[in-house]
Structure formats: C-alpha cells, structure tokens
Design a protein that fits this description.
about 180 residues; single chain; binds coenzyme A; eight-stranded mixed beta sheet; Aminopeptidase; alpha+beta; about 35% strand
C-alpha cells in the first residue's frame, strides 16, 4: 500500500494511525459534530474500532476505503477526519464524508478540506464523480460543499433512520471535467 499524504494551503491529509484515536474522538465524540449526522456521538471504544477497521481496509486491494486524518499544517495537530469510499459497482465514483473538531468551524477549513478531497479523488485516484450526502438542516455542510464547487443534485427521501424517524438527505456532487476548470488547490 502506498500511504496517502497530501497537503493543501492550510491542511494535510494522511493515513490514520492508532495514535490518532483521542484526536478523532474529540471530533466524533462531540454532540455538536454529530448533530446532523445519522449516529450518536461515538465512544472512545467505537473510535478505536473505526481506526482499526480503517487501517485494515487500507491494505485491501483494490483499495476502496480511505479514512484520513486532517492535520493543521501550522503545527501538525489532527483537527478532523475525512472519508472517501469508492463504490464497489461504480469504481469511477466515490462518496465523501468529513468532520472537523468544533473549535475549528467557521474559518473556511471545511471548504478547504472538501477542495482537498476533490483534488485527491480526481487527481490522485482518477475518479470521475465524487458525491456527498447531508442532512437538509446542515447549512454549514451545504455552504462548504457549494463553495467548494459541489453542485446540489437532489434529495434522497427517507434516506436514513435517525432517533426513530426517517430523514431525507440532500446529495451534492462534483464531476472531474467541471472540477478541472475551477480547481485551485
Ligand atoms: C460541515 C463542516 C465540515 C463545515 O466546516 P467549517 O470549517 O465550519 O466550514 P466553513 O468555515 O468552510 O464554512 C462554510 C460556510 O458555511 C458557513 N457556516 C459555517 N458554520 C455554519 C453554521 N453553523 N450555520 C450556518 N452557516 C455556517 C460559513 O460561514 C461558510 O460560509 P461562507 O463561505 O459564505 O463564509 C463542519 O461544520 C463539521 O465538521 N460539522 C460536523 C460534521 C458534519 O456535519 N459533516 C458534514 C456531513 S455532510
């Protein structure tokens, strides 16, 4: 396996390691982070399992799952996590997901991270389509995806079950040919 290590202007993306568990728990263990996500805040044990599965999936060929630590280039601290999952039946297409530690929100980092994920997916993995699904109420994710160039393409009705109720998702996507014309990372 060739480990992923790329950087943009402010952020880096690299493979997760067991040493990242506390930093990733600070992201996904926080109820503010999971407010619009279809799961409850993760326990430390759950984060440990996620990291172990991520490390295992990194060795699978062909590789389909990338779970990457998001680092602040100014100091190297892990401030978030990003996920890119290549579809088994449509290997030109991948779904992305991301989460940042709440004390880093609102400074354009989420937008930068999405741009970096698009660069990784289109330039390094040669994907054609990259998409993400968000809760209709997730305004920060909506704006970050739109500003990064991900077009809003539709609504999946009753996509996920959250706290005993059905919830729709809004899908955004970017296509390689559109991205080629506007990338700046
Ligand atoms: C979604 C997330 C990554 C966005 O990160 P971020 O660094 O705060 O995003 P940005 O600073 O790039 O903000 C993007 C836009 O949303 C706006 N915004 C940020 N937080 C907002 C909020 N809570 N409500 C409304 N708008 C918000 C910003 O002002 C910015 O708009 P602008 O470009 O016009 O200034 C972050 O909020 C997060 O980790 N959320 C929890 C996990 C999550 O929801 N992941 C996405 C699943 S699809």
């Amino acid at each position: 396996m060739r480990p992923v290590e790329i950087s943009g202007k402010r952020l880096g993306l690299r493979e997760v390691t067991p040493a990242d568990v506390d930093a990733l728990h600070a992201v996904y263990g926080d109820p503010a982070t999971t407010e619009h996500l279809p799961f409850d805040p993760r326990t430390r044990e759950e984060v440990e399992e996620i990291v172990a599965e991520a490390i295992e999936s990194a060795g699978v060929q062909p590789r389909r799952l990338y779970v990457l630590a998001v680092t602040d280039l100014d100091g190297g601290e892990v401030i978030g996590v990003a996920r890119l999952h290549i579809e088994a039946d449509h290997p030109h297409s991948a779904e992305i997901g991301l989460g940042l530690r709440p004390d880093h929100w609102g400074r354009g980092i989420g937008t930068d991270l999405i741009r970096l994920l698009l660069t990784f997916g289109f330039k390094h993995l040669r994907l054609h389509r990259i998409w993400g699904a968000r809760s209709p109420a997730n305004t920060a994710a909506q704006l970050a995806m739109l500003v990064a160039g991900m077009v809003e393409e539709g609504r999946i009705r009753h996509h996920v079950r959250v706290n005993g109720s059905w919830r729709d998702s809004i899908v955004h996507s970017a296509l390689e040919d559109e991205w080629e014309g506007q990338r700046d990372t």
